[in-house]
Automatic annotation (TrEMBL):
Protein name, per record: Serine/threonine-protein kinase DCLK1
Chain sites annotated for binding ATP: 59
Highest classification ranks of the organism: Eukaryota, Metazoa, Ecdysozoa, Arthropoda, Crustacea
Record bears the keyword Flavoprotein: no
GO MF annotation: an example: ATP binding
Pfam families linked to this entry: Pkinase
Keywords annotated in UniProt: ATP-binding, Kinase, Nucleotide-binding, Serine/threonine-protein kinase, Transferase
Gene label: Dclk1
Annotated Protein kinase domain residues: 30-287
Family, similarity comment: Belongs to the protein kinase superfamily.
Amino acid sequence: MPSPKPRGRAVSPLAIYDGPALHDSLASRYSVGRILGDGNFAVVRECVCRKTREEYALKIIDKTKCRGKEHMIESEVSILRQVSHPNIVSLIEEFHTPTQLYLVMELVKGGDLFDAIASATRYTEKDASSMVRDLTSALDYLHQRSIVHRDIKPENLLVVEYPNDSKSLKLGDFGLAVEVTEPLYTVCGTPTYVAPEILNESGYGLKVDIWATGVITYILLCGFPPFVSATNNQEELFEQILRGSYEFHSPYWDDISDSARELIVQMIQVDQDKRFSAQEVLDHPWVSDDEALDRNLHLRVSHKLDLHFDTNGPQHKAAGITLMAQVTALDKEKHSLCRESEFKDPTSPPCSPRLSLFTNSSQVF
Ligand SMILES: Nc1ncnc2c1ncn2[C@@H]1O[C@H](COP(=O)(O)OP(=O)(O)OP(=O)(O)O)[C@@H](O)[C@H]1O
């Protein structure tokens, strides 16, 4: 059965474009409007195809900001060109100038994973299970093609809302995605979601995405992350991750099903060989059968998400993404850049607002 059309496809008048001059054929085919979000190297704007009046997202990547990292843009685009899956944001077409790369992408209007929880009135284990199923379906598809995403986090999971109030997830931001042909050693990712084998530089592969999915599943059920430094100390956070040391804190986990906990244990597994594959996650009864409970967790989870993450409006989100980008590539150079900035400007948050908020408020457990 074809899936229902997403909500909100009616064409709204676009705000006047005030950015740098656009590629000629892009400008002749699309009218470009307001900013939807931004990152370190890219701005994402809404746009409308002049011919069909269909809305899209336009990701404008500033090549001049990516000197020395051109291979990352090439990798992002070449992977996006290859993939086609209902839970992955699709690339429609691309335009190049010497300084800019324009990617016309499917528009996803429902905000990110945390927005979806915050805006719901009812939110249950079943909703969380369906989000995990969507994410893992995308990962299973990528992993079967030996592609690792390497930046699985709530900000990169965009939500499609349908008229019958159902939702589905689309995975975006393939900026760190690569094809795995041999063990990888580049230290990258986002601290809360980073797998131990990335930190200990022992060589890693596809399973780092499953670790991050385990961390997200944990957060989806209680509103705070499994690994937190009470003193906002990144070394301490990494120690916990390396040991795989986390708990299902009472009372927050008292009402959560054993099945959900059991699945999380299989995903947040330090030993990569013992850690579930995407297919094993999809086959787990909490995801595939009826073991996810129907109890409303909304008040409790959204309250904790507010305390631990920056779940405010788009302007906060945009700021969060900009800063998050400083730690996105956690290679040693960037890692120390992030730590330097902690000390240079005492008024700015240490890393991303989301990151710093959860580490600062970990004592609320
Ligand atoms: N297809 C889309 N539809 C709607 N909004 C989108 C879409 N793609 C991206 N966005 C918005 O733009 C933001 C930035 O996009 P994206 O993460 O792809 O950029 P980036 O520069 O690669 O980010 P980062 O520096 O964090 O890696 C997203 O967090 C989201 O809010």
